[in-house]
Write a structure and sequence with these properties.
- The protein is mainly β and 93 residues long.
- 0% of the residues lie in helices and 57% in strands.
- Strand 3 and strand 4 form a beta hairpin.
- The N and C termini lie close together (6 Å).
């Protein structure tokens, strides 16, 4: 079952900023909104021991197919300056 409300986490980014987001039981792809042109997010691939940096677009809903939120605490790495909003709808039984 999906949660009734969407989960929203907000943060102010200044330089390299680590943002912790609590994920529900169901793995989901969050959408990210930013209010500045110069914000990137780092997507890590633990099994490949690699990562890549993706530029987020101002005033748009950014969906990154390779970015997942798993159950428990997830740490997202942002680079730049501005405000971010992380939106997802988790699921649990």
């Amino acid at each position: 079952k999906y949660t009734k409300e969407k989960c929203i986490s907000t943060a102010h980014i200044d330089g390299v900023t680590y943002v912790k987001v609590y994920g529900k039981r169901m793995t989901v792809n969050p959408t990210i909104e930013v209010d500045s042109d110069n914000v990137d997010v780092v997507v890590k691939y633990p099994k490949l021991l690699q990562s890549r940096t993706i530029t987020l677009h101002k005033n748009k809903t950014n969906l990154i197919p390779d970015l997942f939120l798993y159950e428990g605490v997830n740490t997202l790495i942002f680079i730049g300056s501005g405000n971010v909003k992380i939106i997802y709808q988790g699921g649990e039984l």
